[in-house]
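[recover] target loaded
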């Protein structure tokens, strides 16, 4: 999956609309701002 993976392009993200996703690490949640792979 590729999300906002062109780092030469400016992107503005309103993180209030992103959901928290559980990380494989216990007790850690994160919001994906970009993803390569």
């Amino acid at each position: 999956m590729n999300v906002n993976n062109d780092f030469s392009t400016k992107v503005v993200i309103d993180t209030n609309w992103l959901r928290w996703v559980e990380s494989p690490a216990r007790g850690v949640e994160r919001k994906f701002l970009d993803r390569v792979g």
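[recover] notes: The two ends are 5 Å apart (CA to CA).
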